[in-house]
Design goal:
The complex is a heterodimer of chains A (about 375) and B (about 325).
Chain A: H1 2-11, H2 13-32, H3 39-64, H4 72-86, H5 108-134, H6 140-158, H7 168-174, H8 178-185, H9 188-191, H10 204-222, H11 224-234, H12 236-241, H13 246-272, H14 279-295, H15 307-326, H16 334-348, H17 351-355
Helix pairs in contact in A: 2-15, 3-10, 3-11, 3-13, 3-14, 3-15, 4-5, 4-6, 4-13, 4-14, 5-6, 5-13, 7-8, 10-11, 11-13, 14-15
Chain B: H1 2-6, H2 12-37, H3 45-70, H4 78-92, H5 97-117, H6 123-142, H7 153-160, E1 162-163, E2 166-167, H8 168-186, H9 188-198, H10 200-205, H11 210-235, H12 248-257, H13 269-288, H14 293-311
Antiparallel strand pairs in B: 1-2
The chains are: A mainly alpha (about 375), B mainly alpha (about 325).
Chain lengths: ~375, ~325
């Protein structure tokens, strides 16, 4: 029993380190924050974490299949721009198609359909990536670089200048605590039910993150397709010889990445109440997603790691930037510290080099 | 016999097809300008030289990027290495401006190389971190504003003056090209680079000090980025924030369009040269057409995919 635990611990050392690191950082942050350990701080933090956490999950899946998706930021931006049209809360010309997009929560079906379309477009963009990689046989890193440019182009076409609007109730309901959510959508006696009180402080983004991780990632990982993604990442030739569906696994990996990135873009649009085809922001999110994946204990070579670890990687990155706010570090020095911390974090992995007995083991 | 001559070698195909595509761009662009304005600027040598002068900066960055891609790594720190070199060069000024700028680039490159070769951190993530650090250093140095310092006369002469009617920047690009192509084809270092790109463990067992070569490659890439930065500062008479941002992805695209395998070990310098020309001409035709940014991005992405579908397809993994 204990042996089993020790083995599992050793196998998931990256994940465990990330979780521990996050807990320490977050505890310190709350201790230093004048209003630490309060629901308001938690809500604000989880709002800022959600989009990056989704992108980190998105990046993880192709990385596990030893590909890299440089288009996650672009997909996020494209879906965000689309959402700023579909979730305005006012009926759209789409009514022509028999879809009645109404205000939230009155027209909840309209909002839900809009959200489904957004996430669906994200997944479709990922599916296209997968097809280009699998059937075009182009290296993922360069294929997604190109498709990313296309998606950014579409986003710019949708929103040449920042703008649009998101239904205000939707914005309020999804970026606050569960209690606010309940009172906005009028469930559980507007959130006043006595059994509901102990949960009312939990931030909605946190619940959404947990739901997406548990309902999408965990079942995927346990499915044949999910295992195939890991197999492709650790030895594609062996996976092929074992009869695993490697083409389908790769397409599924990229589609899932598009889905997660779409969720991130949807939330970012809801949170900022607008659509913005911001190219530098898309690039920064893509690069931060790669950093989150590495900090979360997933190998860029593929085959080991998990999306859960990447969520913690993203949270660590974000908490570090929260620190700048409370410790009054000059804003000019923040990029420098962020860079140094990132370098320090990834260089810790270099300790492995010291333990290698055979130099050849370095050249994997 | 005829089939043998018709069948192109794998290394020649990208160069031929990219060349063909450049021709198509020129013809289509000229047809457009002729129909719309009644003139053919794309065929005038003055206009082409001017475009190539701007392309020289991208060309020099791409030359460095190619060396790093050939050993199956990547350098994402190019944007702020470029900007840092330009800012340091302009703020030092005087005769030392260019050596200091290049020195900054070389130093950043060597740091990248040490991180990748000796610490074994994936280059994708290490150079990303170095890029953030360089950005942080430069933001702290300039206070976040556009630096007030100006480029020295020598920098301006190199970047924007002309000799015998040909921009000096093109001479610099040509010199870099000759050096890089010669290094890749004629020196042991070049052989080692291709060997490492194909299989580092094999190169190591064959007696190559792969880690030293890796550091050299990153050093050269940093040097190339710095040279481009110094020239760009000379061209625009000053350094500015984010001046390198527009060079990272196009340089990778140029290298890949030129037929260099992104996984390393395969690719010719001539291809990179043609890839740069292709991207520069594509950009200039799109700006003649007044294409909005949205359309440019879409076309840009589609061209990369199209070119790679024609000749850049990988092998199917079957064992």
């Amino acid at each position: 029993m204990l042996d089993d635990l020790a083995i599992r611990l050793r196998q998931n050392i990256g994940l465990v380190t990330a979780v521990l690191l996050f807990c320490i950082f977050y505890l310190l942050y709350n201790l230093a924050h004048p209003r630490g350990f309060s629901s308001a701080v938690l809500v604000q933090n989880s709002d800022e974490i959600f989009a990056l956490a989704m992108l980190a999950m998105a990046q993880t899946v192709p990385v596990l299949a030893s590909g890299l998706d440089l288009s996650v930021g672009a997909v996020m931006t494209m879906v965000g721009c689309l959402a700023s049209y579909l979730l305005t809360g006012t009926p759209l010309p789409l009514e022509l198609l028999g879809l009645h997009l109404g205000t939230f929560p009155g027209g909840i079906t309209g909002i839900l359909i809009g959200m489904l379309i957004c996430v669906g477009i994200g997944a479709f963009a990922g599916f296209v990536n997968g097809c280009v990689v699998v059937y075009g046989r182009i290296q993922p890193i360069i294929a997604t670089l190109a498709t990313g440019a296309v998606y950014i182009g579409i986003a710019l076409f949708l929103r040449p200048t920042p703008g649009g609007k998101i239904d205000e109730d939707l914005n309020w309901a999804l970026t606050n605590s569960l209690g606010d959510f309940a009172s906005t959508v009028h469930i559980f006696d507007d959130g006043a039910a006595s059994w509901f009180a102990p949960f009312a402080w939990i931030p909605v983004p946190f619940v959404l993150l947990a739901l997406i991780a548990l309902l999408v990632w965990v079942p995927f990982r346990r499915s044949v397709l999910g295992r195939s993604v890991y197999a492709v990442g650790s030895a594609e030739g062996a996976a092929y010889m074992s009869g695993l569906p490697i083409d389908r696994a790769k397409i599924a990996a990229f589609t899932l990445a598009g889905f997660f990135a779409g969720c991130g873009g949807l939330f970012l649009a809801i949170q900022t109440s607008s659509g913005n085809a911001d190219i530098p922001q898309a690039g920064a999110y893509t690069l931060n997603s790669i950093a989150s994946v590495v900090i979360g204990g997933t190998s860029l070579l593929g085959g080991t790691g998990s999306a859960i670890g990447s969520i913690f990687g993203a949270m660590i990155l974000r908490v570090i930037s929260f620190f700048f706010r409370i410790f009054d570090i000059a804003p000019l020095l923040q990029p420098l510290f962020e860079g140094l911390i990132l370098l320090a974090a990834v260089s810790i992995g270099a300790l492995r080099v010291l333990r290698v007995k055979n130099t050849l083991e370095l050249f994997r | 016999m005829t089939t043998a001559t018709l069948r192109l070698s794998r290394a020649d195909r990208p160069i031929l097809f990219a060349g063909l595509f450049i021709f198509i761009i020129l013809v289509a662009g000229t047809a457009y300008t002729f129909a719309r304005f009644g003139s053919a600027p794309l065929l005038s040598p003055t206009y082409l030289l001017q475009q190539l002068q701007i392309g020289a900066f991208l060309g020099i960055v791409a030359a460095g990027m190619m060396i790093v891609i050939l050993i199956a790594q990547i350098d994402l720190s190019v944007p702020w290495t470029l900007a840092a070199a330009a800012m340091m060069a302009t703020s030092i000024g005087g005769p030392l401006a260019i050596p200091v700028g290049l020195g900054v680039g070389l130093l950043v490159g060597i740091i990248n190389g040490i991180g990748v070769a000796y610490l074994r951190v994936p280059s994708m993530i290490f150079t990303l971190g170095v890029n953030a650090v360089m950005r942080g250093l430069m933001v702290a140095h300039t206070g976040g504003y556009a630096p007030q310092t100006a480029a020295t006369d020598l920098m301006r002469t190199l970047a924007s003056e002309r000799t015998l009617g040909i921009p000096n920047a093109l001479f610099v690009w040509a010199a870099v090209s000759v050096l890089v192509a010669g290094m890749l084809q004629r020196t042991p270092l070049g052989r080692h680079i291709y060997a490492i790109g194909n299989k580092e463990a094999a190169a190591y067992l064959a007696g190559v000090d792969t880690r030293r070569v890796t550091v050299i490659c990153f050093g050269l890439c940093g040097l190339a980025a710095a040279l481009a930065g110094v020239l760009l500062a000379g061209y625009s008479t000053k350094a500015y924030q984010g001046m390198g941002d527009a060079y990272l992805l196009p340089s990778i695209a140029a290298v890949v369009i030129g037929g260099t395998n992104i996984l390393g070990g395969r690719g010719r310098y001539l291809g990179t040269l043609i890839g740069v020309v292709l991207i520069v001409l594509l950009n200039s035709v799109l700006s003649i057409m007044d294409m909005p940014e949205a359309g440019r991005q879409v076309i840009y992405g589609l061209v990369i995919i199209l070119m790679l579908l024609v000749y850049g397809r990988g092998d199917r993994v079957t064992s």
